[in-house]
Amino acid sequence: MARLIAVSIDCRNEEVRRTFEDMVSRRLHYLIAKGQGTGAVDMLLLELDEFRPQHTFDRVRQLLSSAPDLEIFLTASRMDSQLLLEAFRVGVKEFLPQPLTRQDVEPALARFEARFAGKTSGLELQAGKVIAVIGVRGGVGTSTVATNLAVSVQQARHQEPVALIDLDIHGGDLGLFLDVPASQGLTHLTKDISRLDETILRSTLVRHPSGLQFLASGCDAYDDFMFEPGSMMRVMSLLRSIHRHVFIDCGHVLDPSVREVLDSADQIILVTTLSLPVIRRTKRLLELLAAAHYPSSKITVVVNRYEKDQKDLVAETETLLGVHMAGLIPNDYESASEAINHGKPLTVMASRTPIAQWYLRGVGQLIGDHAEGAAVSFKGQAKSLSFLGRCFSSVGMEVGRKPSAV
Ligand SMILES: Nc1ncnc2c1ncn2[C@@H]1O[C@H](COP(=O)(O)OP(=O)(O)OP(=O)(O)O)[C@@H](O)[C@H]1O
Ligand SMILES: [Mg+2]
């Protein structure tokens, strides 16, 4: 998992600030937090007040007492050995003399990274699973799938914290699907990413009666909105630290924030249907994901609106795309629409229908036995050339074992 390191800089000397920013941004996985905030920040570069050093040391003590995991780098143009000793005693981790040089900064960052990796490896073992749900096209049922998978997991595992996030900034309406009021959402959390912490996150999440925690996008469909680069990684990392499962409705547009979520996700569920234009889009999206070097084990394809008489079409599509369809969600427009119009999940609104049963029974295999059963297995070239086959060729990877669809 790519966990970003958030860095804040509190420095009057502009030259020092710029040099440090430049050196940090050349390394991977760093995010420079804007403003002076230290909430949810991993490292702070702090300039010594050379006229009132005790003032700086008091500040260090205060910061570390409220955020013990924060690492403070101190910088100054002059420093005597007595002050240096005192700085380390109050908890400063590194000292960087001014002017900053690569020879001083890079080894200090490398030491910090080693300590950081040690601290986070234990946490990441317990970190929750991020499951990104993305549609190959608008209207294929992405929001229905994301919502009902999340609710089904929550219903099956009452005690486990589960979250559902609406990242469809082009018209997300999951609040309506669940009938939960959500005036604030991702846009609120990312306004000042440097201040984002667990308290702010928890106060923005809205609880659904099933126990599911919901986070709206906060966007109006007609806003021309973009999240700051890096902010989605930060939000995901915080979300997974307090939830066992985090489902994200990514909509169907591969914009930069969706790409960040796909990067940090443990599993990507592609929602498709069995119509020719949609199959063609599925092929294209699979190609893009393969080109972005996502491992095939991370990608799962599910067919929505599946009809019983489409068995042969599924087999043919699998061969053409070179992937296995891990889930076949029954077509039931009436139940699906009624559930949306009543703001209720399918498992509550129409629990006995085959579509609701699919969610209740299929979700475990789809997300749980992912590596074994549900992941994409890229398969070989099409054998026969039907109408579908003549329309386009396979994504073209080697044949894998074919697990059965849910
Ligand atoms: N399994 C299904 N069978 C029949 N209809 C379905 C099924 N799943 C979803 N639908 C219907 O498809 C329509 C679109 O669903 P949904 O809003 O979930 O799609 P979407 O891909 O999120 O759309 P958008 O691109 O607008 O965000 C809805 O009317 C919904 O009721
Ligand atoms: Mg949607």
Structure overview:
- With 406 residues, the chain is α/β, with parallel strands linked by helices.
- It has 17 helices and 13 strands.
- It has helices at residues 14-25, 53-66, 81-90, 102-126, 142-156, 174-178, 186-189, 198-204, 231-242, 256-264, 276-291, 311-321, 333-342, 346-349, 354-368, 370-374, 387-391; strands at 5-10, 30-32, 43-47, 71-76, 94-97, 129-135, 162-166, 206-207, 213-215, 245-249, 267-272, 299-306, 325-330.
- It has an eight-stranded mixed β-sheet, sandwiched between helices. It has a five-stranded parallel β-sheet with strand order 2-1-3-4-5, sandwiched between helices.
- Strand 11, helix 11 and strand 12 form a beta-alpha-beta unit.
- Helix 2 runs parallel beside helix 3 (81-90) and helix 9 (231-242) packs parallel to helix 10 (256-264).
- The chain starts with a strand and ends in a 15-residue tail after the last helix.
